[in-house]
Amino acid sequence: MLKGKTIILGVTGGIAAYKAADLASALTKMHASVQVILTENAQHFITPNTFEAITKQKCLTDTFDRNHPFEVEHIALAKRADLVVIAPATANTMAKLAYGFADNMLTTTVLACTCPKLIAPAMNTAMYENPLTRENEERLRRFGWTVIEPASGILACGDVGRGRLPDKELILEYVLRAIALPKDLAGRKVLVTAGPTQESLDPVRFLTNHSTGRMGYAIARMAMLRGADVTLVSGPTALQRPSFVDFVPIVSAADLFREVTARATEQDIIITPAAVADYRPACVSDEKIHKKDGELSIALERTEDTLQYLGDHKREGQILCGFAMETSDLEERARGKLAKKNLDMIVANNLKVRGAGFGTDTNVVTLITRDGEEKLAIMSKEDVAMRILDRLAGMAW
Ligand code: CTP
Predict the structure, then answer these.
(1) What does residue 253 show for φ and ψ, rounded to 5 degrees?
(2) Which residues are catalytic?
(3) Residue 71: which residues within 8 A CB-CB, separation 6 or more?
(4) Where are the beta strands (DSSP E) in 251-356?
(5) How far apart, in Å, do the first and last CA atoms of the chain sit?
(6) How far apart (Å, rounded) are the C-alpha atoms in residues 261 and 238?
(7) CA distance linking residue 329 with residue 325, whole number of Å
(8) b/e map of 286-312 (b: 16 or more CB within 10 Å)?
(9) Which residue has its alpha carbon closest to ligand 1 atom 20?
(10) How far is the CA of 208 from the centre of ligand 1 (A)?
(11) Which phi and psi (to 5°) does residue 120 adopt?
């Protein structure tokens, strides 16, 4: 996702500097050109050689490098950069950046950068909580920096509190959000439903389905990376919550109906891959149901159909995209749901096709609109998510 992007990774002199090697490696694997700048103090914790082996680029440490006498290197680099990430950032470097100091290769280069800038402070809790550091952080925010707040935990000095460098995965999500995709959904509100529902029968049992939530989570994440203001209403899944989305956990079809309809009017686009139960037990026993001789029948009643409600109450200009999972007569049934539920698009997939459906990394879908259909080849759920969003963004404005 970072192909063709130049990222300046600034590493300063804290114990977490060693973790920056892992970050440089992950960014390089995502095809970014990673230009590492180490401060003098950082070199007490990690060497330029480490970063050069990982990034295959010269690691910069010195503003007055005699190997580049004909180029003002920090300015050339600042012009090329798509993003600056400083991780870890010490209190000292934060203070310098907050007041525009330019006394080493990192601060000099960064002062000349006009691209987006991320900073991940990591230090002892007392240093981080010091009002001076708080004020410097606030000042950086005011001057356009995005601060990746430190995590809490046991620090190198043995203290417990805020000050740890956050996990690499979170820093990567900040990077991707900043530069990975064009922001064609900026300012748009997108609500996505995901996962299965669970319908209780008694305190120990419930009815559910095989949905893992992957398709919905992929759509929510891609919409977020494209700049949308995303709400993800999710049934119980084993997936990690995507960052930077408003996450609303639900359990039953009734919960889904309540949470989605409460937020529906304000949404520009609603996409509903959740596998919602059509029926729930008519009576939920307060006590465990014990076995008896002979058969047992459970009476079921219909649940609320959230998508039908959304179609019936669709606001002018709102885009509604449903999903249809079928095992036969795919296109015909999906087309029927498109019309009945007043949708703008329905994503149809046949559970019996290889590579489609529950628990797979891939999907095979047909995008059906009122005036046509597009069969997509087998592709990752992330790529399917992108294709769905492309189509919906094209309809919306
Ligand atoms: N859906 C919903 N609420 C329900 C059932 C389904 O919002 N109670 C939504 C799903 O999230 C999906 C779409 O409706 O986006 C279609 O779901 P599906 O189960 O394929 O179809 P149904 O409308 O339930 O029709 P059928 O049972 O005939 O397949």
Answers:
(1) -60, -35
(2) 157
(3) none
(4) 269-272, 279-281, 300-302, 319-326, 345-350
(5) 25
(6) 25
(7) 11
(8) eeeeeeeeeeeeeeeeebbbbbeebbe
(9) 324
(10) 14
(11) -115, 95
Strand, helix or coil at 159? coil
* Residue found under tokens 């219909």: 302
pLDDT tens, residue by residue, 186-242: 999 999 999 999 999 999 999 999 999 999 999 999 999 999 999 999 999 999 999
Q: What's the per-residue H, E or C state across 167-209?
A: CHHHHHHHHHHHHCCCCCCCCCEEEEEECECCEEEECCEEECC
pLDDT of residue 351: 85
Of 208, 323, 344, the one to substitute when testing ligand 1's pocket (max ligand atoms within 8 A of C-beta) is 323
Distance in Å, CA 386 to ligand 1 centroid? 22
Q: What is the pLDDT of residues 106-120, one digit of tens each?
A: 999 999 999 999 999
CA 371 to ligand 1 centroid distance, Å:
22
| Residues lining ligand 1, Cβ inside 6 A | 193, 253, 272, 274, 276, 278, 303, 305-307, 322-325, 337
DSSP state of 372: E
SS3 39: coil
Question: How many residues does the structure list for the chain?
Answer: 397
| 173: CB partners within 8 A, 6+ apart | 243, 244
Question: What is the CA(75)–ligand 1 centre distance, in A?
Answer: 56
Residue owning the nearest CA to atom 16 of ligand 1? 324
CA of 139 to the centre of ligand 1 (A): 50
Ligand 1 pocket, mutate which of 199, 279, 307 (most atoms under 8 A from CB):
307
Taking CA atoms only, the protein residue closest to ligand 1 atom 25 is: 337
- 234-273 confidence digits (pLDDT tens): 999 999 999 999 999 999 999 999 999 999 999 999 999 9
